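Progress against Task 2.4 (sequence-to-structure conversion) is shown through the following example record, which the project officer requested during the mid-term review.
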Amino acid sequence: ADPILYPMDPFAPMEVQSMPPRPQDEAGMLAKVREHVRTVLEDQPHDVSLAVGQPIAAILSAAREQTADLIVMGTHLRYGWRRALLGSVSEGVLHGSECPVLTVADHDRFVGETPYAVANILCPINFSDVARESVYVAARVAQAFHARLTIVHIVEDDAMMNAGAHEERIRTWISPELRDICSYREVVARGKPAERVLDCAEDLAADLVVIGAQHKQFRDTTVLGATTERVIRLASSPVLIVPRESSISVRGNSG
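Structure tokens generated for the chain above:
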């Protein structure tokens, strides 16, 4: 999805500056995309489509039209201002998507002959409804990849309860049917939520972080939650963001 721009005379009338894309330009762009994808996917079944227009709106529209179960996007893993961290397109899709979004940082761990394995999955929770959705998704992914799932709860105020009480709360909060999907363990850590989630991901050598995102409207923008956004920006492993009531069918499904 990309706007095709042409050199324009800035002093020309506005109607002259607005030009529909030429067929040869669309065909050339589509050929480039197909060649790029072919070098990565090789013989894997796939489709390539081209949308001319603003990328965020085009990607979200395509996801709705295709009833996508998942959107996969790259991030830059850069430090600085918000848009420099994720890229404006990735950020816009994250905030507007109705289905889960998998963000993959620009990292050499995905390059090479060895297939990327998903052996360790980390799922942070805060006992909210969207966290429950993310746990179900994490369990299904763990089941599909025969991966180990770690469910972590971060406690900011360690004077509230002891670790044992928090672990018991996690066991009570998690639905018993999760045991039939995959094996998992509960971990309680103390500190600032985003920083401790990132620490846990590094300590566990997590191949995937699954985290919920509650889309909330704040004035004219949508926010995902401070912890979720910080984890997305700073995690070196792929992050699967699960919006509330996502389109993934996680219950009553074997895979």
